[in-house]
Amino acid sequence: MAKKGWDEFEIGAMLRSFDGKIDDIAGTRQENRDYSESNSYTASVADWRLIKPVFNKDYCIDCQFCWVYCPDVSIISRDKKMIGVDMDHCKGCGICVEVCPTNPKSLLMFPEQADEEAEIASWPTKDEEK
Amino acid sequence: MAFDKMELRDIEVWDGNFAAAQALRQCQIDVVAAYPITPSTPIVEGYAKFLSDNYIEGEFVMVESEHAAMSGCIGAAAAGGRVATATSSQGFALMVETLYQASGMRLPIVLNVVNRALASPLNVNGDHSDMYLGRDSGWIQFDSYCPQDAYDLNFIAFRVSEDHDIRLPAMVHQDGFMTSHTAQGVTTLSDDVAYNFVGDYKPMNDMLDFEHPVTHGVQTEEDWHFEHKARQHNDLMTKVIPKIEEVFKDFEKLSGRKYNIVEEYETKDADVCVVCMGSSVETAREVAGEMRAKGIKAGVVGIRVIRPFPFEQIRDALKDIKAIATLDRSSPNGAAGMLFNEVAGSLFNTDTKALLSGYVYGLGGRDLTKVHLSDLFTELQANVDAGKVTTPLQQFIGVRGPKLSYL
Hints:
- Chain A is an alpha+beta fold.
- Chain A is built from 3 helices and 5 strands, in the order ββαββαβα.
- Chain B is of the alpha/beta class.
- In chain B, β4, α4 and β5 (110-115) form a beta-alpha-beta unit.
């Protein structure tokens, strides 16, 4: 974001979410929204993350629990189908993994540098004790 | 309109609290979030009563502390309403954290502060400790000397504060008990005239504008914080005083009552002058008149706008005075006193040869008597005659025990 001088921005500790007027924002997908430069959607906070969720679609039942519980709106879902995680905004809290009801889980946390394909290839099997 | 109007006599007998409550009614405040505290309680109590009696369309939010009261006001103001509350002393102190939020967020809240001492020891009476505590908070601060001022300055505060070039919150101060609980004749404005002077609230960046969503109260670090604070200071230093002068003029046209950034009394040919605030201004004026009968050319400068501090107006008002006394009604606790410092700062680098001395008085509601002021003017005249300050620079007035003086 451009570093403006003291006389170059709007007064108040106030930031706009969108450029200009919005209409039916709930019916507009994120990628189609006219986010302003100051909206957090345009900023990556990926470097806050130490561990990351890996999504394995083989076990996902599209229950949407992760989408509902994610505190950073970082679960990408389209037509109620889980697609993946927005890795620009995910902070690695692990709540999605905690709430995932499948066995084995469809989301698991791994170190940030872990290889996604390798982890999916060696995914844990069903836990029979549950 | 969905609410009733009130028939007022041209002159009502009101104390400062009721005058402020009536002004809040006539301004049709949308939200008052309050936690009542002596001696300001009747202001918010009055608003609540007018609301329940259908004289106002608004909301009264009873909260669990003064911190919550100002927080509620901030939320309501960010949402886009006309907002006010009142407090004193310990309540004001608890509110301080949120005062900085309100001004930094540029929300035009009006806070009636009924000045009272700060504990410890606990004390409910009037001094200016709470008023002084707010002086770096980024608010505009108006000072009333009597109930009439408390009434009028509320309308003026809303007009200044809500102006889109200003958008800074404002405090209207009055002295605890001496003004807040002393009934005097107050010349009123009719409901329509009063409301039209303030006008309909014009929202700016309000959260209830769903077509233009905004985030209020954002965080900035070393990369942005300084610019925001600089802008706020700039607007306080350059825009507020001219706007207040404009609104004072409009108010004079409407009511015939003239307010000034600093209120000068007999200063034009004065040799000696006191600079003070609150109800003491009226006492000082009376004594100044009596001193003139005794051959001492005395004047009084009352501060009407404490923040932003009127450096230029003070400099002009005091430029030909030979001996000046500043009267601080708050313990400086290890310094010279706010008025002493500000007046010294205003006069430094000018051609004045004025002799400046500072006095601390009236803590915890201790009276400032006419005898005190008469002695003070006499002391200033002695300074003029000697051509130097004959006393220590800081003295206490009206405290028991051995005389206290410093510097």
